[in-house]
């Protein structure tokens, strides 16, 4: 599979098929469909970070804490990791 077809398949399905042994915790569900509820919600999908199902299932607020190195890059309100606090 060439590189372009691999990227196209990844974006269409959300599944990553590693060529070699990978250290990823998951290989599926890595993309998020952008909701077209309104323009701002659609735009916010491209500014948010989705780290996968592992972090969404965590029962801790540690994944939502703002670190000094992420200030200005991550929105503390638009975090798709798990249920709202």
From TrEMBL:
InterPro entries in the record, alphabetically?
DNA-dir_RNA_pol_su2, RNA_pol_Rpb2_3
Residue ranges of domain RNA polymerase Rpb2 in the record? 33-85
Q: What is its EC number?
A: 2.7.7.6
Output this protein's name: DNA-directed RNA polymerase
Gene3D superfamilies with a match to the protein in the record? 3.90.1100.10
Which segments cross the bilayer? none
Gene Ontology process terms (BP): DNA-templated transcription
Return the GO cellular component terms, semicolon-separated.
Answer: DNA-directed RNA polymerase complex
């Amino acid at each position: 599979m060439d590189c372009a077809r691999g990227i196209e398949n990844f974006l269409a399905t959300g599944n990553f098929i590693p060529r070699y042994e990978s250290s990823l915790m998951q290989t599926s569900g890595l993309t998020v469909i952008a909701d077209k509820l309104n323009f701002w919600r659609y735009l916010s999908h491209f500014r948010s970070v989705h780290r996968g199902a592992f972090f969404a299932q965590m029962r801790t607020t540690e994944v939502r804490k703002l670190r000094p190195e992420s200030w200005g890059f991550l929105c503390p309100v638009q975090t798709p990791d798990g249920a709202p606090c």
